[in-house]
């Protein structure tokens, strides 16, 4: 790997506040230090309106606790590892103003916009994966990428989280073309893509986004933000060697965000 691990950030990881991750922010930071990374961005799931996906995220009343917890880790790591504060926000039509308000409450370093729902269907939830049998796969991807394009057009986010997420349980994207309008919207909005190694740990066993999609993205000038999507400290920096090698092979640019600006 020509880009050294000690220059890299892992910009996607969670905390137990989302109710499906373990380890304190300090433990994630310590894991990154042991892994030899330059820094991390903690990006837990944003609070959303009470009716939306409540079992899988912090409540609005926990947002201050989140900030406090990450700031403690940042302070404890001073001079050893850079700790930045972000969010994995959701894009779900109708919730934009709520999300905008949360984003205005703190000077975040990095905010991803992720689509986890098609209507009421949480399509990346293993409990609901049977739904894939009832729908047309191309239709799923069309609906999904239409939402991604809308997310890009809101101007609320720095990057799109795990771009080709519907493939998670093994339902690979039937045609690359389905993603082109969304990629063009991402490029037009000057956004980046979360280059997410968690896909390697799922049935599809592939980074999000797939190599073909990432190649088109790189050609459109879209940069990439490395992220493990760690839900446990041991996953920090997961498969970053492979990720960097693939990105270098396709001419992809690796960036991070600080104060919502590209570094
Ligand atoms: Zn996600
Ligand atoms: Zn995540």
Description:
By secondary structure, the protein is of the alpha/beta class. It has helices spanning about 25-35, 65-75, 95-105, 135-155, 180-190, 210-220, 240-250, and strands spanning about 10, 40-45, 80-90, 110-115, 115-120, 120, 160, 190-195, 225, 255-260, 260. α1 (about 25-35) runs parallel beside α2 (about 65-75) and α4 (about 135-155) packs parallel to α5 (about 180-190). It is globular, with a radius of gyration of 17 Å. The protein starts with 8 loop residues before the first strand and ends with a strand. The model has no long low-confidence stretch (mean pLDDT about 95). The strands form three sheets. A seven-stranded parallel β-sheet has the order 1-2-3-4-7-8-9. A two-stranded antiparallel ribbon has the order 5-6. It has a two-stranded antiparallel ribbon with strand order 10-11. The chain has one domain (about 5-260): TIM Barrel, CATH 3.20.20.140. One zinc ion binds near residues 88, 114, 116, 161 and 162. The site of one zinc ion has 4 residues, from loops.
């Amino acid at each position: 790997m020509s880009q050294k691990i000690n220059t890299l950030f892992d910009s996607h990881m969670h905390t137990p506040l989302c109710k499906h991750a373990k380890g304190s922010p300090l433990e994630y930071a310590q894991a990154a230090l042991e892994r030899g990374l330059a820094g991390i961005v903690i990006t837990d799931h944003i609070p959303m309106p009470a009716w939306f996906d409540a079992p899988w995220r912090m409540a609005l009343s926990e947002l201050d606790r989140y900030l406090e917890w990450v700031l403690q880790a940042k302070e404890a790591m001073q001079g050893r590892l850079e700790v930045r504060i972000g969010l994995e926000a959701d894009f779900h039509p109708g919730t934009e103003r709520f999300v905008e308000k949360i984003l205005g409450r703190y000077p975040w370093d990095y905010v991803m916009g992720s689509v986890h729902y098609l209507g009421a269907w949480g399509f990346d939830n293993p409990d609901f994966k049977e739904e894939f049998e009832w729908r047309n796969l191309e239709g799923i991807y069309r609906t999904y990428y239409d939402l991604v394009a809308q997310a890009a057009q809101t101007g609320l986010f720095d990057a799109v989280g795990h771009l080709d997420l519907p493939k998670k349980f093994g339902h690979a994207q039937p045609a690359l073309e389905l993603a082109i309008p969304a990629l063009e919207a991402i490029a037009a909005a000057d956004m980046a893509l979360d280059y997410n190694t968690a896909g390697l740990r799922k049935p599809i066993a592939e980074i999000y986004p797939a190599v073909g999609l990432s190649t088109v993205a790189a050609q459109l000038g879209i940069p990439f933000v490395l992220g493990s999507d760690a839900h446990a400290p041991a996953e920090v920096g997961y498969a970053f060697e492979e990720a960097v090698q693939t990105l270098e092979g396709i001419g992809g640019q690796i960036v991070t965000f600080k104060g919502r600006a590209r570094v």
